[in-house]
Amino acid sequence: MSACLMIAAMTTAPVAAQAEAVLPDQVAELPVAIAAIIDAAIASGDRAEIETVVRTTKRALPEVTAAIDRHLAGRIDTAIGARPPSPALLASQKAKNSSSPLSTLPPIDGATLKWSGEGEAGAFVNTGNAPGIGLVGGFKMLVEGQNWRVGTNARADYQETNSVITREQYRFSAEPNYKFDERGYLFGLGQYEQDRFQGFASRYSVSGGLGYSVLKSEAARLSVKAGPAWRVTEPVAAARESVVAGLASLEAKVKITPSLEYSQDASIYSDATGSTFYTLAALDSKLIGKLKARFSYMIQHETAPELGRFGTDTTSRLSLVYGF
Question: Which of the listed CATH numbers 1.25.40.10, 3.40.50.300, 2.40.160.40, 1.10.1740.10 matches domain 110-323?
Answer without folding.
Answer: 2.40.160.40
